[in-house]
Description:
The chain is α/β, with parallel strands linked by helices. Strand 5, helix 3 and strand 6 (118-124) form a beta-alpha-beta unit. It has helices at 40-52, 76-90, 102-111, 130-133, 137-144, 164-170, 200-208, 229-240; strands at residues 5-8, 14-20, 23-30, 54-59, 95-100, 118-124, 149-151, 160-162, 186-191, 214-219. It starts with a strand and ends with a helix.
Amino acid sequence: MTDILHHTLYDGRRIAFRYTHGAGPCLVFLPGYMSDMSGSKATALFAEAQAKGRACLLLDYSGCGQSEGDFAEGALSKWRDEVLALVASYVAGPVLLVGSSMGGWLMLLVAEHLKHRLTGLIGIAPAPDFTRWGYTEEQRAKLAAGETIYEPNPYGPEPTPTHPGFFADAECHLRLERGIDLACPVRLIHGKQDADVPWEISLRLKSALGSADVQVTLVEDGDHRLSRDSDIAALKAIVAEFY
Protein backbone atom coordinates (compact mmCIF):
# COMPACT_ATOMS: atom_id res chain seq x y z
CA MET A 1 0.00 0.00 0.00
CA THR A 2 1.14 3.53 -0.65
CA ASP A 3 1.87 5.91 2.19
CA ILE A 4 -0.88 7.89 3.83
CA LEU A 5 -1.17 11.40 2.40
CA HIS A 6 -3.06 14.38 3.81
CA HIS A 7 -5.08 17.07 2.08
CA THR A 8 -5.83 20.32 3.90
CA LEU A 9 -9.19 21.92 3.18
CA TYR A 10 -9.95 25.64 3.17
CA ASP A 11 -10.91 25.57 6.88
CA GLY A 12 -7.84 23.64 8.00
CA ARG A 13 -9.37 20.15 8.06
CA ARG A 14 -6.68 17.56 7.24
CA ILE A 15 -8.11 14.58 5.38
CA ALA A 16 -6.09 11.37 5.18
CA PHE A 17 -6.09 9.57 1.84
CA ARG A 18 -4.27 7.12 -0.41
CA TYR A 19 -4.01 7.55 -4.15
CA THR A 20 -2.50 5.45 -6.88
CA HIS A 21 -2.17 6.71 -10.44
CA GLY A 22 -3.33 4.63 -13.35
CA ALA A 23 -5.44 4.25 -16.45
CA GLY A 24 -9.21 4.22 -16.86
CA PRO A 25 -11.72 5.78 -14.50
CA CYS A 26 -10.48 6.49 -10.99
CA LEU A 27 -12.21 4.23 -8.47
CA VAL A 28 -13.17 6.33 -5.44
CA PHE A 29 -14.15 4.22 -2.42
CA LEU A 30 -16.55 5.68 0.17
CA PRO A 31 -16.53 3.78 3.49
CA GLY A 32 -19.50 3.20 5.75
CA TYR A 33 -20.52 4.84 9.02
CA MET A 34 -17.61 4.88 11.50
CA SER A 35 -15.51 2.97 8.97
CA ASP A 36 -12.35 4.01 7.17
CA MET A 37 -10.02 3.20 4.29
CA SER A 38 -8.30 0.36 6.16
CA GLY A 39 -11.31 -1.94 5.70
CA SER A 40 -10.96 -5.19 3.78
CA LYS A 41 -13.05 -4.14 0.76
CA ALA A 42 -11.25 -0.81 0.36
CA THR A 43 -7.79 -2.33 0.69
CA ALA A 44 -8.63 -5.19 -1.69
CA LEU A 45 -9.85 -2.81 -4.39
CA PHE A 46 -6.84 -0.54 -3.90
CA ALA A 47 -4.40 -3.46 -4.18
CA GLU A 48 -6.12 -4.69 -7.33
CA ALA A 49 -6.00 -1.19 -8.82
CA GLN A 50 -2.26 -1.05 -8.17
CA ALA A 51 -1.75 -4.51 -9.67
CA LYS A 52 -3.74 -3.68 -12.81
CA GLY A 53 -2.43 -0.14 -13.27
CA ARG A 54 -5.75 1.58 -12.52
CA ALA A 55 -6.30 4.84 -10.67
CA CYS A 56 -7.80 4.54 -7.17
CA LEU A 57 -8.53 6.96 -4.33
CA LEU A 58 -9.28 5.97 -0.74
CA LEU A 59 -10.01 8.42 2.08
CA ASP A 60 -10.99 8.74 5.71
CA TYR A 61 -13.79 11.20 6.41
CA SER A 62 -13.01 13.87 9.02
CA GLY A 63 -13.33 12.39 12.50
CA CYS A 64 -12.67 8.89 11.13
CA GLY A 65 -9.56 6.75 10.75
CA GLN A 66 -6.42 8.83 10.30
CA SER A 67 -8.15 12.09 9.40
CA GLU A 68 -8.35 14.88 11.92
CA GLY A 69 -11.59 16.03 13.51
CA ASP A 70 -14.31 14.97 15.92
CA PHE A 71 -16.69 12.23 14.76
CA ALA A 72 -19.47 13.92 16.73
CA GLU A 73 -19.24 16.82 14.27
CA GLY A 74 -19.51 14.57 11.20
CA ALA A 75 -22.30 14.96 8.65
CA LEU A 76 -23.15 13.79 5.16
CA SER A 77 -22.82 17.33 3.80
CA LYS A 78 -19.39 17.72 5.36
CA TRP A 79 -18.11 14.36 4.18
CA ARG A 80 -19.57 14.89 0.68
CA ASP A 81 -17.60 18.11 0.39
CA GLU A 82 -14.41 16.36 1.53
CA VAL A 83 -14.80 13.72 -1.17
CA LEU A 84 -15.48 16.37 -3.80
CA ALA A 85 -12.43 18.37 -2.71
CA LEU A 86 -10.15 15.36 -3.06
CA VAL A 87 -11.60 14.43 -6.45
CA ALA A 88 -11.18 18.02 -7.66
CA SER A 89 -7.57 18.12 -6.44
CA TYR A 90 -6.24 14.71 -7.49
CA VAL A 91 -8.50 13.07 -10.09
CA ALA A 92 -8.26 14.40 -13.63
CA GLY A 93 -10.49 12.04 -15.58
CA PRO A 94 -13.69 10.03 -15.19
CA VAL A 95 -14.79 8.66 -11.82
CA LEU A 96 -16.19 5.30 -10.68
CA LEU A 97 -17.81 5.74 -7.25
CA VAL A 98 -18.01 2.74 -4.92
CA GLY A 99 -19.98 3.23 -1.72
CA SER A 100 -20.35 0.78 1.17
CA SER A 101 -23.38 0.98 3.51
CA MET A 102 -23.64 4.68 4.50
CA GLY A 103 -21.06 5.26 1.77
CA GLY A 104 -23.75 4.13 -0.65
CA TRP A 105 -25.90 7.07 0.50
CA LEU A 106 -22.97 9.46 0.34
CA MET A 107 -22.19 8.11 -3.14
CA LEU A 108 -25.50 9.49 -4.40
CA LEU A 109 -24.79 12.95 -2.97
CA VAL A 110 -21.30 13.03 -4.48
CA ALA A 111 -22.61 11.71 -7.81
CA GLU A 112 -25.10 14.56 -8.10
CA HIS A 113 -22.10 16.92 -8.28
CA LEU A 114 -20.03 14.78 -10.67
CA LYS A 115 -22.66 13.80 -13.23
CA HIS A 116 -20.58 14.70 -16.27
CA ARG A 117 -17.58 12.71 -14.97
CA LEU A 118 -19.28 9.52 -13.81
CA THR A 119 -18.42 6.18 -15.38
CA GLY A 120 -20.71 4.42 -12.94
CA LEU A 121 -21.79 3.75 -9.37
CA ILE A 122 -21.34 0.59 -7.30
CA GLY A 123 -23.27 0.29 -4.06
CA ILE A 124 -22.31 -2.40 -1.51
CA ALA A 125 -25.27 -2.92 0.85
CA PRO A 126 -26.15 0.75 0.22
CA ALA A 127 -28.00 2.48 3.05
CA PRO A 128 -29.59 5.69 1.72
CA ASP A 129 -32.06 7.33 4.10
CA PHE A 130 -31.09 5.07 7.02
CA THR A 131 -32.01 7.82 9.48
CA ARG A 132 -35.58 7.40 8.25
CA TRP A 133 -36.06 3.60 8.14
CA GLY A 134 -33.26 2.52 10.48
CA TYR A 135 -34.53 4.10 13.70
CA THR A 136 -37.70 3.85 15.75
CA GLU A 137 -39.95 6.87 16.07
CA GLU A 138 -38.76 7.19 19.68
CA GLN A 139 -35.13 7.30 18.56
CA ARG A 140 -35.91 9.83 15.85
CA ALA A 141 -37.72 12.02 18.38
CA LYS A 142 -34.71 11.96 20.70
CA LEU A 143 -32.36 12.89 17.85
CA ALA A 144 -34.68 15.68 16.70
CA ALA A 145 -34.67 17.00 20.29
CA GLY A 146 -30.87 17.21 20.27
CA GLU A 147 -30.05 13.97 22.08
CA THR A 148 -27.35 11.51 21.04
CA ILE A 149 -28.53 7.90 20.86
CA TYR A 150 -26.40 4.77 21.27
CA GLU A 151 -26.98 1.34 19.76
CA PRO A 152 -25.23 -2.02 20.20
CA ASN A 153 -22.24 -2.38 17.90
CA PRO A 154 -21.82 -5.89 16.42
CA TYR A 155 -18.35 -4.97 15.12
CA GLY A 156 -16.70 -3.62 18.28
CA PRO A 157 -16.91 -3.21 22.07
CA GLU A 158 -18.18 0.37 22.12
CA PRO A 159 -21.81 1.24 21.27
CA THR A 160 -22.46 3.07 18.01
CA PRO A 161 -23.49 6.71 18.51
CA THR A 162 -25.72 8.78 16.29
CA HIS A 163 -25.34 12.47 17.00
CA PRO A 164 -28.16 15.00 16.55
CA GLY A 165 -26.09 17.10 14.13
CA PHE A 166 -25.62 14.13 11.81
CA PHE A 167 -29.33 13.35 12.02
CA ALA A 168 -30.44 16.93 11.27
CA ASP A 169 -28.14 17.14 8.25
CA ALA A 170 -29.18 13.70 6.99
CA GLU A 171 -32.84 14.72 7.02
CA CYS A 172 -31.93 17.21 4.29
CA HIS A 173 -30.51 14.45 2.06
CA LEU A 174 -33.26 11.85 1.87
CA ARG A 175 -33.34 10.32 -1.62
CA LEU A 176 -35.54 7.22 -1.71
CA GLU A 177 -38.86 9.08 -1.69
CA ARG A 178 -38.09 11.02 -4.86
CA GLY A 179 -36.51 10.43 -8.23
CA ILE A 180 -32.71 10.42 -8.29
CA ASP A 181 -31.53 12.20 -11.42
CA LEU A 182 -28.53 10.04 -12.29
CA ALA A 183 -28.25 8.36 -15.68
CA CYS A 184 -24.95 6.45 -15.43
CA PRO A 185 -24.76 2.65 -15.05
CA VAL A 186 -25.35 1.48 -11.47
CA ARG A 187 -24.51 -1.86 -9.87
CA LEU A 188 -25.82 -2.77 -6.40
CA ILE A 189 -24.75 -5.83 -4.41
CA HIS A 190 -26.54 -6.80 -1.20
CA GLY A 191 -26.57 -9.79 1.14
CA LYS A 192 -29.98 -11.31 1.83
CA GLN A 193 -28.85 -12.12 5.39
CA ASP A 194 -27.94 -8.47 6.05
CA ALA A 195 -29.02 -7.70 9.64
CA ASP A 196 -28.22 -3.96 9.38
CA VAL A 197 -29.58 -2.82 6.01
CA PRO A 198 -32.54 -4.77 4.60
CA TRP A 199 -31.79 -6.00 1.09
CA GLU A 200 -35.08 -4.45 -0.03
CA ILE A 201 -33.38 -1.05 0.30
CA SER A 202 -31.34 -1.86 -2.81
CA LEU A 203 -34.57 -2.58 -4.69
CA ARG A 204 -36.03 0.74 -3.49
CA LEU A 205 -32.88 2.50 -4.63
CA LYS A 206 -33.10 0.83 -8.04
CA SER A 207 -36.67 2.13 -8.40
CA ALA A 208 -35.69 5.66 -7.39
CA LEU A 209 -32.75 5.94 -9.77
CA GLY A 210 -33.30 7.58 -13.13
CA SER A 211 -30.72 5.37 -14.84
CA ALA A 212 -31.97 2.81 -17.36
CA ASP A 213 -28.99 0.59 -16.50
CA VAL A 214 -29.32 -0.55 -12.88
CA GLN A 215 -28.53 -4.12 -11.85
CA VAL A 216 -29.00 -5.59 -8.37
CA THR A 217 -27.05 -8.66 -7.27
CA LEU A 218 -28.47 -10.41 -4.19
CA VAL A 219 -26.12 -12.74 -2.31
CA GLU A 220 -28.29 -15.42 -0.70
CA ASP A 221 -26.01 -16.12 2.26
CA GLY A 222 -24.34 -12.70 2.37
CA ASP A 223 -24.27 -10.56 5.52
CA HIS A 224 -23.92 -6.79 5.80
CA ARG A 225 -20.17 -6.63 5.52
CA LEU A 226 -19.80 -8.76 2.36
CA SER A 227 -16.13 -9.22 3.24
CA ARG A 228 -15.63 -12.94 2.62
CA ASP A 229 -13.24 -13.94 -0.15
CA SER A 230 -16.21 -14.90 -2.33
CA ASP A 231 -17.90 -11.55 -1.69
CA ILE A 232 -14.77 -9.59 -2.57
CA ALA A 233 -14.31 -11.69 -5.71
CA ALA A 234 -17.88 -10.83 -6.74
CA LEU A 235 -17.18 -7.14 -6.04
CA LYS A 236 -14.03 -7.23 -8.14
CA ALA A 237 -15.97 -8.79 -11.01
CA ILE A 238 -18.49 -5.95 -10.85
CA VAL A 239 -15.69 -3.38 -10.84
CA ALA A 240 -14.12 -5.08 -13.88
CA GLU A 241 -17.27 -4.32 -15.91
CA PHE A 242 -16.21 -0.67 -15.97
CA TYR A 243 -12.70 -1.22 -17.42
